[in-house]
Amino acid sequence: MKKHLIIGGGVAGVSLAWQLLKKGHFVLLIDNMQNKSSSIAAGMINPIVFRRVTKSWRVDEFLPAAEAFYKEVELATESQFFNSIKIRRFFASQQEKKYWNKKQGEEQFKKYLSPEEIYNHEFTNPLNLLGSAIVKNAFRVNAPHFMKQMHNLFEVNNSLKYESFDHTKLDPDTMIYNGKKYDSVIFCCGSDHSSIPHFNSVQIQHTKGQILTIKARQMPKEETWNKKGFILPIGSNSYMVGATIERNINDTIVTEEGRKELLKVINGLYSGSHEIIHQVAGIRPTVYDRRPVMGEHPKHKGFYIFNGLGTKGYLMAPLLAKEMTDFIIEAKDLHAEVQLSRFYKNK
């Protein structure tokens, strides 16, 4: 039985651990319990990029894999955290509306875009005059519940330790960490990437995101509203509002500037009353070309990286984790756009 050490217990790390355990391998997942961006995320799985109304990268592959994965984990953990949602997109420009109305009739978009419709709600912002339409095949993962269930599962199987990774205890020549030998060490460190002295050529950027939780009794409970941000129903008249995008900031301090930006999202969509309950911040691991980073270290064999999933982590992680598992175990090729070699080709 091969043994794998995974550093980082966010959505990338737990998805990879699940896939390796399914193959019958031994896994130890180390998590430092810091900056739990995977746990505070909205967990929305949205197949559409709105500005030019395009499909998310590889969504036709990612979406069925994500559905199967989350339902499988729900069954294994006897829990429920995965639901379909209805996203109502209020058009932000005439150009966006034109793209939508053109593409919604195309075969490749039919499963994702509904026709524009007349929609009247007493508490929509009256300035939203360009109309709206529904994104189909959208989902939400209840991120805190999902992460808790996954961590509980790994703890029961003695596959999880809550501690900080100490790079001085890892010998890259013998693959021994803290006195135990492993066949592979996979770094899924998220925004902690810069504190690990391996894969120094990989530039994982820090993108801070802040989210509000509000009470809003006049918002519809069955729809997520979206325009320059989102208002997502999470039950009991509560909603998540997000999210800011603050590049190259590596702290989780909530700010008044962030709150003001999120209030603009609310006021741009909703004209009813609301009460702010909570404000949180996390750091997303992002990459300059908006693609994850996956592969084996060019010099240290058995050292791997699986990072940079960014804002689409809950959509991409299930399939990418399977592809990473197949790469580690069977040496199957990774998708060309995620390969680590793009950071080393000029070295």
Could you report the average pLDDT, rounded to the nearest whole number? 94
Can you tell me the CATH architecture of the largest domain?
3-Layer(bba) Sandwich
Please tally the helical runs, counting DSSP H or I stretches of 4 or more residues: 7
Helix content: 25-40%
How would you describe this protein?
The chain contains 7 helices and 20 strands. The chain is an alpha+beta fold. The chain has 2 domains: 3-40 and 145-204 and 288-343, 3-Layer(bba) Sandwich (FAD/NAD(P)-binding domain); 84-138 and 206-286, D-Amino Acid Oxidase, subunit A, domain 2 (D-Amino Acid Oxidase, Chain A, domain 2), CATH 3.30.9.10. The strands form 4 sheets. Strands 3, 6, 7, 13, 14, 15, 16, 17 and 18 form a 9-stranded mixed beta sheet that branches. Strands 8-2-1-12-20-19 form a 6-stranded mixed beta sheet. A 3-stranded antiparallel beta sheet has the order 9-10-11, with no helix packed on it. Helix 1 crosses helix 7 and helix 3 (59-77) crosses helix 7 (313-330). The longest helix is centred in the first third of the chain and has 19 residues, at 59-77. The radius of gyration is 21 Å and the shape is globular. It starts with a strand and ends in a 17-residue tail after the last helix. 44% of the residues are buried.
